[in-house]
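Thanks for the sequence, V.! I ran Transcriptional regulator, IclR family right away. Repeating your input here for the record:
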Amino acid sequence: MNMNSLTSPDTETTDKVAPNLRTLRIMEVLAEVGKPMTPTEITDHLGWPKQTTHRLCQTMVAEGYLEKIGRRLQTGTRLLKLTSGLVGLSANQVTRHQVLLKIAHEVGETVNFVMPERDGMRYIDRVETNWPFRILLPIGTHVPFHCTASGKVYLSNLKPKIRQALIAGLKMEIFTQQTHATVDSLNAELKQINHNGYAIDREEFHDDMVAIAVPVRDPKGRFYAALAVHGPKQRFSEQDARDKYRLLSESADIISNALFA
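Predicted structure:
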């Protein structure tokens, strides 16, 4: 590989790279080139001051992230362990997606893996249904806590004081005639969700959309994410959703085992 072809015509400066990211840029260069390099070759690629690159490389060698072979640098033991672990993490994500594919095949509706963030429940992974009539909520979408199956199953798993503090700060926006309009009605359902182990969205977020969500837990039994299925009520009724509880619960356990093994 021609190392000059990798050099950006507008070379970056260290001012453009946050200090905590500079060692990552060195690792990226080594990965792109695909063979051991001298600190000078790395400097030429990055366009950084020679002293900066040499100092960072010396630190990475001392910490075991890089190894010296003569004048050249290659990946060290710690970096190899790091990359191996990241590949394993990627494999866990592959397992998660394969579980979603299996559920989608059995259920015939859209399957979602959803996690709580400060702006709401965020779609992290999903498998779409093949039906032409479907409700599109792309990966990266944030949906409310109070009127979605994933949001309600998350709220129901919070400790009471934390849950009430969060609910007190929620904007209880009304999306449909079925949306919870009061804290009391939401709390009453959350108690039932905690008992059942799953949450149902009864057209609360979108008219004609029904959903079910179950928790994916960490090894200590704490809520980590929600596994959910949604579809139009013409194909996916509330009873259809409840009938999928066992499948989702067993699948959530498989995902948990893969993520936290």
